[in-house]
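2024-03-11 09:14:02 DEBUG pipeline.ingest accepted 1 chain
2024-03-11 09:14:02 DEBUG pipeline.ingest length=335
2024-03-11 09:14:03 DEBUG pipeline.predict start
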Amino acid sequence: MSAKSANAFIAFLMIFYYWFRGIVLFFVPKPLRFKSIDGQLAVITGGGSGLGRALALRFARRGANIIVWDVNESGLRETVRLVQEDSPGVKVYHQVVDVTDRTKVYQTARDIQQSIGRVDIVVNNAGIVNGRPLMDIPDDRIELTIRVNAVSHFWTVKAFLPDMIERNSGHFVSIASVAGQIGTVKLTDYCASKHAAIGFEESLRMELLSAGLTDIRSTVVLPYFMNTGMFHGFKSSILPALDYELVADSVVSGVLCNDEYVVVPKICYTLNTLKTLMPVRAYYKLYEVMGGYQAMEDFTGRDGLTAADTTAKHTNSNNNSINNNNNNNQRQKVN
């Protein structure tokens, strides 16, 4: 047997080994497989509320020191207060960072590494949603959704990856969504951004493995819609919105087990499989039966506004911006 044939045979055996190993681990209680993150440093984007705040609390309970990023400083301060009360033994910091600003992301990452220490865990959690038909979404809001939910992951990973490569150690977490695998009415930009986040994370994992960096881990999280407020008004008679606290527990558990995928609830593992196996029109009918076409009818989002309200708000905001710019130009001319 040639060396090439021998390597192919060994690879074939390894496929079945990992398949069997995965089946066995499925029945092993997760707490028995938890790794320690005591003393490690975790950066969590979108940490000013909701899932990001819940993750900060849970990682801190495991002994990790926490840095939360958000554009909402008051929310960040509240997260810091809650973490300090809940886990007084850990260090917790907050930094106002717009993750779409790569210059700010890179500079803040350098500051962290110089003044606080090496980062061990990066959780890309920041996200936004519009929840409107494609033609009702202003172009700049589409661009913003893609930048926050997907493109920002490039900047955070590039900011912290070089140091992780030096020591072949670290963990990236991408909070994506089941909507990144299955298109949903009134979520064209959101689904596209989450699909991009999944593709980015999976490609990154392959790059790390091909480079032999097997101890830099990554986890992509695909939760169903959550009751964080961001999806306020979402409805489904079959599978209602999830409690984000439950999702936070699943995310932390997955990270501690070095799971590559965390899908919440587990029944959503079957959705993409059904989509692949079923005839297209049969899948469309299943989507209809599950209430997919009506799920976003009453969506208002975190601001508590309907699609018509948010469109009007956006238009008024643009008009005010134009008026302010004109006034500023007039003042500059006078001066």
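2024-03-11 09:14:41 DEBUG pipeline.report The longest helix spans residues 139-167.
2024-03-11 09:14:41 DEBUG pipeline.predict end
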